[in-house]
Amino acid sequence: xxLDAQRVKKDFPILxxxxxxxxxxxxxxxxxxxxxxxxxxxxxxxxxxENANVHRGIYELGEKxxxxxxxxxxxxxxxxxxxxxxxxxxxxGTTESINLVRYTWARANVHEGxxxxxxxxxxxxxxxxxxxxxxxxxxxxxHLPIDDDGKLRIDLLGEYLTDRTKLVGxxxxxxxxxxxxxxxxxxxxxxxxxxRILVDAAQxxxxxxxxxxxxxxxxxxxxxxxxxxxxxxxxxxxxxDLLEEMPPFHGGGEMIREVWADHATWAEIPQxxxxxxxxxxxxVGMGAAIEYLEDLGMDAVREHEMQLTKYALDRIxxxxxxxxxxxxxxxxxxxxxxxxxxxxxxxxxxxVDQEGVCIRxxxxxxxxxxxxxxxxxxxxxxxxxxxxxxxVDALIDALEKSKGWFI
Length: 407
Ligand code: C6P
Hints:
By secondary structure, the chain is an alpha/beta fold. The chain has 14 helices and 17 strands. The strands form five sheets. A seven-stranded mixed β-sheet has the order 4-10-9-8-7-5-6, sandwiched between helices. Strands 13-14-17-16 form a four-stranded antiparallel β-sheet, covered by helices on one side. A two-stranded antiparallel sheet has the order 1-2. Helix 2 packs antiparallel against helix 10 (280-296).
């Protein structure tokens, strides 16, 4: 079934508000998406009818809260094709998930003389943790280059993956270029040299249907807030055998089996990695967001975004903008980064804001990629299920105005 974005738009109360007295045109979903009524209502219902701590209360209300929380784990596992809920660790988002792997698996498995491979298009969240790890361990960080179209140089994999590589960290979809990366190809090559692969799916999970078994990844991370869910919730998928052998991340309540004065043993996975009271309502909201997306159908989401992105690329190109990343919508998602020669991206964002249009400008937490592109910053419009061609037209009209300011 195809997606009716005009109808979807009505599910998002914030899209009925105004910005500077104009219709709100929200084109910054890659930073964070808006939330549908179903997710907002689910969180309100949790607080009004089910709120208690989880995995603790031996009373009906506590059981309701635990069922809601664990229901979100089932939805999450289903969404990414994980075979067991034991593989799903709730975190507060992608950044925390990646740091979890850094502090647990990576500290135990990456040593002096080893290598960690990332790509030139990584968000700082999937770069800085590995810089810190390498500084701490004496391992070497390497970067798989991209080509002029913003695609990975897969032809160079053989050169960059060696028997010293212990971990590959790569995004499934770039938050700047929109590039969709061939994770399975890299996973096969990584496994062939005995390395593990961690996938940053922060930009992919809201837009693409994928299965962790098809990707054959060892770890995968994403955040709820970019996919119709609340802030403060996200997950780490980990292969069960890896999670089992990993030391805990945070110490505290709920992650233990038995505690003595001077030592302790750990709970089963995934609880071993969920110390303290989790962000319960947020996780429940994440479950509702997943159900909302499942109802729309991820194939319909992708089809809608491919059509809209094609329209947006054509229109943004037609006003003389430089666009970064692949131009074929089969190779990319719905983030479009661009520059207009005569206008600074920050000025662009400020001026289009006057017309009610929200876009992001800056380095998008990908400074090394900006250097590679030879620019300090770009403007970025990112489209989602509630955006229409009318929204793209509003962006173009507003951008035309911004050009006028500087000519
Ligand atoms: N990118 C953007 O505007 P957190 O903040 O932990 O939810 O997600 C971090 C993150 C990790 N990887 C990728 C590919 C991302 O795009 C992001 C978040 C936002 O592009 C905010 S900087």
